[in-house]
Inverse folding.
């Protein structure tokens, strides 16, 4: 699976502890960012949405979650350019990728 | 001739200076266009300073029911000038908690400075002398000149301190003058002036060590008020220091020292108790706030408690400060900054694996604080972060001395490439894309390492050059002093006297103040030489010079013109006042007994006094008048003084 390979590359085969630690950190941080994205879309706080998408873009890229990262990048750009009309569908797509990713990652954690 | 000395010290670039916010305030106040609002805003950019300043504003304004909670309010209540001074003073403390001089106990220095500051503020308030906030700053910085000498001459000053350990301040000051041609009080006063603090501050720190009776003679009322409270505060902090360093100290002795301070302040026991309690509390609070250890000194309360209990006290604990090790040539100290905890861990691990020492911060403002405390060689920061982003962090670092040479690597996300020019404008050295590839990151850091090594080499060259310049300056000063000093008597020589006379001549013309001279000639000196030999003659000259030097007062300057002839310059003095001085000198020399070889007895002097008159066109005429008066004193029978006016008019004996 791509995610795990990417993490192994980051941590090196000799350091499985790091991989698990990174996944743990991601699982701690990402839900808050996702809920920030959803609530700021609802309230129209585009600045918060841009920041949350930015952070999630790089952390999801770190663990190799390419689809989520790509979605976040698009959300960040739309938010920066105030193109709100494209946002709802992107947010929906991101929530879906996140849900899938989360269940995979939770299984990896002992 | 002192001013250039300070300029030389300043040119060394090693003088203590305010850091960060203090420096910005200094810059703002250097031109007159700054507004109170700008200054408040600058101060508020530093949360630690803001807190400290508000604490001072509230304790200095005690009695008012509404606490001061904002800087603009403090500015209104304390006055802009006091707020500026306090901000500067506090920023000096945070920038100079340690330094290069191994023989200088920085912790002890700040502990006693803080004790003095808190005591001065409290005295000012209780006794209604001066402005409490100003008293605090003047007392805090009263010995900043020592810090300056330790910074400019770490090695030499360390040796001097070791040699003069335990001696009085006056001995140390004269040793400083011998070695550096300037003492710490003078350096301190020039520094305060240089920072644009009100002139009363520099006057106060030159005055405060004199007895109170002497301090009050100074014409600057504001300086007198400051000097008086700093004087008392110094007395109190010295007692606290002694009580703190004496392990099982003489508790009653300390308490009686406190008691005599109380008596000289002229306040009753009960209010004095309250003052002591306030100082003790405030001091401990301030110690925490400024991170200055307070346990090296005993608080007034502890002293009093100890005296009444008469029990042994535990030894004061020595503070061991953690020393941050400099990295070896390959390992670097790296500060990693990212608001995303995962990226931060990943970054830290990658760097640690490559053997670097890693510090982490979750945002720009924490990173700035950490960078100031630990001086990392490399900073790797994310661009987008809440509060202070990567570019703001970089700009903030580039504005301060220590941040200028850090290698700054920016992490950029996708989509930020088009703004990279902005990043380089902010002072970023290089950038790496996120998510980063560990090998690329290491390659960039390696590139940075070369830059750092080059910079460090340049820096060490610069330091060496500055050190050489400072040494050269020192040598020049010593030579200049030698050229202006009489070798036998160690008094200023004729060349110096003529320079000084020229200056005073111009001063008196400009200010319209009187100027008088006293010409001095030893009676029958030739006979001493002929009868007892030149060796004895030299002793007589030295002894007489020493009496003259001791007997002249501040402002008057005695020099040796040559042979057995001396000159005393008395600025701001009229002829009859100079006559009184002349009589004092005459009688002092007459009473001084000299025993050397075959000589056993005393010598007498003849003196001529002259005051500048409107008809005199140059100081030569004044010298001539004084010279003529000496001649007249000689012809009148010696061992007396004659005044030029009486000599011109009546030529009657004095």
């Amino acid at each position: 699976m791509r995610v795990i390979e990417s993490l192994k590359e980051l941590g090196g085969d000799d350091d499985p502890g790091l991989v698990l630690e990174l996944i743990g950190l991601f699982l701690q941080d990402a839900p808050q960012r996702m809920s920030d994205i959803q609530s700021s879309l609802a309230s129209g706080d585009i600045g918060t949405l841009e920041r949350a998408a930015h952070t999630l873009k790089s952390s999801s890229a770190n663990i190799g979650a390419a689809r989520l990262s790509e979605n976040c990048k698009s959300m960040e750009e739309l938010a920066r350019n105030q193109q709100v009309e494209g946002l709802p569908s992107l947010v929906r797509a991101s929530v879906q990728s996140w849900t899938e990713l989360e269940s995979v990652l939770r299984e990896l954690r002992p | 001739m002192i001013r250039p000395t300070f300029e030389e010290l300043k040119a060394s670039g090693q003088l203590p200076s305010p850091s960060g916010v203090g420096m910005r305030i200094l810059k703002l106040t250097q031109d007159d266009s700054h507004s109170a609002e700008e200054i408040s805003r600058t101060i508020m950019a530093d949360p630690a300073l803001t807190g400290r300043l508000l604490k001072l504003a509230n304790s200095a304004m005690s009695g008012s029911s509404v606490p001061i909670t904002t800087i603009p309010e403090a500015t209104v209540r304390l006055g802009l000038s006091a707020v500026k001074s306090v901000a500067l003073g506090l920023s000096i403390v945070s920038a100079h908690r340690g330094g290069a001089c191994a023989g200088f106990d920085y912790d002890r220095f700040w502990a006693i400075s803080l004790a003095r500051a808190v005591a001065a503020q409290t005295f000012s308030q209780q006794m209604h002398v001066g402005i409490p906030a100003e008293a605090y700053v003047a007392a805090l910085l009263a010995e900043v000149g020592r810090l300056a000498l330790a910074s400019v001459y770490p090695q030499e000053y360390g040796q001097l301190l070791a040699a003069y350990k335990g001696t009085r301040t006056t001995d140390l000051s004269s040793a400083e003058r011998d070695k550096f041609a300037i003492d710490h009080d003078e350096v301190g006063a020039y520094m305060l002036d240089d920072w644009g603090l009100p002139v009363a501050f520099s006057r106060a720190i030159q005055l405060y060590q004199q007895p109170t009776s002497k301090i009050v003679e100074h014409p600057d009322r504001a300086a007198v008020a400051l000097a008086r409270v700093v004087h008392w505060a110094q007395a109190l902090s010295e007692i606290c220091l002694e009580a703190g360093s004496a392990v099982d100290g003489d508790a009653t002795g300390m308490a009686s020292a406190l008691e005599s301070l109380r008596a000289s302040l002229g306040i009753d026991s009960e209010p004095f108790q309250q003052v002591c309690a306030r100082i003790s509390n405030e001091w401990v609070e301030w110690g925490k706030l400024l991170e200055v250890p307070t346990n090296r000194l005993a608080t007034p309360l502890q002293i009093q408690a100890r005296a009444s209990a008469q029990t042994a006290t535990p030894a004061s604990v020595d503070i061991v400060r953690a020393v941050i090790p400099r990295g070896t040539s390959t390992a670097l100290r790296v500060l990693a900054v990212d608001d995303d905890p995962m990226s931060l861990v990943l970054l830290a691990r990658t760097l640690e694996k490559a053997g670097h020492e890693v510090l982490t911060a979750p945002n720009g403002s924490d990173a700035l604080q950490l960078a100031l405390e630990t001086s990392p060689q490399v900073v790797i920061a994310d661009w987008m972060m809440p509060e202070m982003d990567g570019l703001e962090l970089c700009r903030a670092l580039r504005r301060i001395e220590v941040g200028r040479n850090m290698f700054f690597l920016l992490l950029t996300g996708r989509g930020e490439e088009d703004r990279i020019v902005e990043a380089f404008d902010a002072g970023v050295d290089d950038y790496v894309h996120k998510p980063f590839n560990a090998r690329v990151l290491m390659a960039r850091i390696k590139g940075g390492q070369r830059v750092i090594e080059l910079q460090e080499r340049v820096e060490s060259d610069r330091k060496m050059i500055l050190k050489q310049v400072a040494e050269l300056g020192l040598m020049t000063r010593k030579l200049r002093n030698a050229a202006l000093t009489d070798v036998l008597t160690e008094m200023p020589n004729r060349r110096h006297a003529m320079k000084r006379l020229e200056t005073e001549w111009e001063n008196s013309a400009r200010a319209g103040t009187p100027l008088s001279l006293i010409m001095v000639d030893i009676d029958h000196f030739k006979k001493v030489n002929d009868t007892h030999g030149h060796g004895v003659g030299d002793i007589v000259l030295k002894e007489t010079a020493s009496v003259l030097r001791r007997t002249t007062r501040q402002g008057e300057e005695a020099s040796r013109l040559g042979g057995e002839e001396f000159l005393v310059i008395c600025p701001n003095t009229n002829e009859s006042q100079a006559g009184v001085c002349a009589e004092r000198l005459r009688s002092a020399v007459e009473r001084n007994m000299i025993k050397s070889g075959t000589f056993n007895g005393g010598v007498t002097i003849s003196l001529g006094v002259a005051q500048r008159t409107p008809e005199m066109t140059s100081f030569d005429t004044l010298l001539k008048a004084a010279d003529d008066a000496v001649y007249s004193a000689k012809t009148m029978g010696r061992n007396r003084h004659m005044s030029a006016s009486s000599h011109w008019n009546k030529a009657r004996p004095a």
The longest helix of chain B spans residues 438-483. Residues 193 and 199 of chain B are 6 Å apart (CA to CA). Chain B touches chain A through 19 residues (CB under 8 Å). Chain B is about 60% helix and 10% strand.
